[in-house]
Design brief:
Shape: flat
Structural class: alpha+beta
Helix content: 25-40%
Strand order of the largest sheet: 12-13-24-15-20-21-22
Radius of gyration: 47 Å
CATH architecture of one domain: Sandwich
CATH class of one domain: Mainly Beta
Number of helices: 7
CATH topology of one domain: Jelly Rolls
């Protein structure tokens, strides 16, 4: 077979409908050639069957035959022209959006069509008058992203005020008063900034390597602490597990006893109902039998004994109530909590206090927060009720209503511990509070309002919550230790002299920095409760 004449133009082998090289060409009776798919689709959309080239009308839809010769020539031409012109899309090229199958390299992009065209598919834009009005530019990928969504114009400028790409129409509207530069100019500025950022990357890498080392060292230290903690806690948890198991057995026994009581009640009622059911069934049989007798005398004599129903209970008000277990688990858990607290105090008190004392912080009372009636020592470690309201300059940090005071130091992460001497005091508040707590007017002192405090007076010791948590007041309570784990949401109080745990508030939410909080309480005319609260140094002893 002769090879395709490569001096022919692509137009000689192009379908006049799709403008591409023939694919499975067929010939009409008028002698014009088309791709089978193109002419079939064209006729599917027409009322009359006519030739798209010469407009010849056909009475019926022509029976199309494949033009074998033209098909072979077109195939050879397609291969030859693609190899010759090297129009295949390479990685850096913009592909033609109109090509099917193998995409050719685009030579122009249309700003109206938002499409890119190879030389073949660009032909309508060079021939059709309406398409000739389209703005053609050098091939661009992601063409829609390069167009202004508001004005449908190419984004060619950069607004330095809003740091966005804009078109020529944007600077005449919303960006009228903004400094605007060409994209290339801003590109050069940003490229210089990028170079600076790239120069900082090695230092950032080194910093992160150092941080990785610190984290790994922390994990290693934490692992050693965990091993020690597990060893210390093993003995404690062995005893606690025994308490839990006993509580579990007692709880099951209580529930089972309630169930047995209900079952017995139900059994007795069912037995009584079954007896009444039997009696009523017998009576029904007798009544049915009597209803069929024709003996007047027998009927009247029998009716006298059957007219009144046998004695039965009114079952409408009788019911078997399921046993109520409400409070059973709570009471068991309360008992368990009490037992566990006792065990924990005995088994871990001293060891726990020693561990938390390692987080001691040096805190000083802040005179700017102190109520005008309070007197602070020069070193900021002691506070008591001076009995006289001093005239002080206004300060939004000061407590003007209650004789409270905070420390200068606040904490927003990690753990910290401090101790306060309460010896010979008859009333006091002690703990931590959010730095942002309300300081003016009346307010309830609870964790909800940002206070985690112990309160002590002649009526006993309580943790201030809603409702308050009453605690056993230990005799000779002289010094209280306060430990906070900010990240874990934990506030714990300790009897330092007895080396036992007093109370812990768990699951706390700390959204602001925390400050140690002291209130020495008022003293009466007799001088009671006049001794100060004293922030004491921690004395760690084995």
């Amino acid at each position: 077979m002769a090879t395709a004449n490569t001096s022919w133009s692509e137009e000689n082998f192009s379908c006049s409908i799709c403008l591409d090289v023939f694919n499975n060409p067929v010939t009409t009776t008028c002698g014009h050639n088309f791709c089978r798919t193109c002419i079939t689709k064209f006729w599917d959309e027409q009322v009359q069957y006519k030739c798209p080239v010469c407009n010849k009308l056909f009475n019926k839809r022509p029976d199309l035959k494949v033009n074998t010769f033209l098909s072979e020539l077109a195939a050879q031409f397609r291969t030859t022209i693609q190899v010759k012109e090297k129009l295949f899309v390479e990685q850096a090229d913009v592909p033609c959006d109109f090509c099917t199958g193998t995409q050719l390299k685009a030579v122009k992009s249309s700003l109206e069509c938002f499409m890119s065209f190879c030389q073949t598919h660009l032909e309508p834009h060079q021939r059709v008058a309406r398409l000739q009005k389209h703005r053609l530019v050098e091939p661009m990928d992601r063409l829609e992203d390069r167009m202004c969504k508001k004005h449908d114009r190419l984004l060619e400028l950069f607004c330095q005020t809003e740091q966005v790409c804009v078109c020529q129409f944007c600077i005449e509207g919303d960006h009228r008063s903004h400094p605007v530069v060409p994209l290339k100019e801003e590109y050069e500025v940003k490229t210089a900034q990028l170079g600076k950022i790239e120069a900082e990357v090695p230092q950032m890498i080194q910093e992160r390597k150092q941080k990785i080392k610190e984290i790994k060292d922390t994990v290693e230290l934490s692992s050693k602490d965990a091993d020690r903690e597990i060893a210390d806690g093993g003995q404690v948890f062995t005893a606690l597990i025994g308490c839990v198991e006993k509580c579990w057995d007692d709880f099951k026994q209580t529930v089972q006893e309630k169930l047995k009581s209900t079952e017995k009640q139900a059994y007795d009622l069912v037995k009584e109902l079954e007896q009444e059911l039997e009696d009523l069934t017998n009576r029904g049989s007798e009544l049915k039998q009597l209803s069929h007798t024709k003996d007047h005398l027998h009927f009247l004599q029998a009716f006298r004994s059957l007219k009144d129903p046998p004695p039965t209970r009114d079952w409408t008000t009788v019911e078997v109530r399921p046993p109520s277990y409400l409070g059973t688990l709570r009471r068991s858990l309360d008992q368990l909590e009490e037992t566990l607290n006792m065990e924990m105090k005995k088994l871990r008190g001293a060891a726990e206090l020693k561990r938390v004392q390692q987080y001691e912080v040096d805190v000083i009372l802040d005179p700017e927060t102190a109520h005008p009636r309070l007197t602070l020592s020069e070193d900021g470690k002691q506070v008591h009720d001076g009995g006289v309201v001093k005239i002080l300059p206004g300060n939004p940090k000061r407590f003007p209503w209650y004789i409270h005071v905070l420390t200068r130091q606040s904490f927003s992460s990690g753990r910290f511990y401090f101790e306060v001497q309460v010896k010979d005091k008859t009333a006091w508040y002690l703990g931590v509070a959010r730095e942002s707590i309300n300081r003016i007017g009346q307010f309830i002192v609870t964790p909800e309002t940002g206070h985690w405090l112990l309160y002590c007076d002649n009526n006993g010791l309580v943790f201030l919550d809603d409702p308050v948590v009453r605690l056993p007041l230990r005799a000779e309570l002289q010094k209280v230790g306060v430990f906070v784990d900010y990240d874990e949401g934990l506030v714990s109080f300790y009897d330092v002299e007895a080396r036992v745990h007093i109370y812990s508030a768990t699951g706390c939410t700390f959204s602001d920095p925390l400050n140690p909080f002291l209130c020495p309480g008022s003293h009466d005319h007799g001088g009671n409760n006049s001794v100060p609260l004293i922030i004491s140094p921690v004395n760690q002893t084995d």
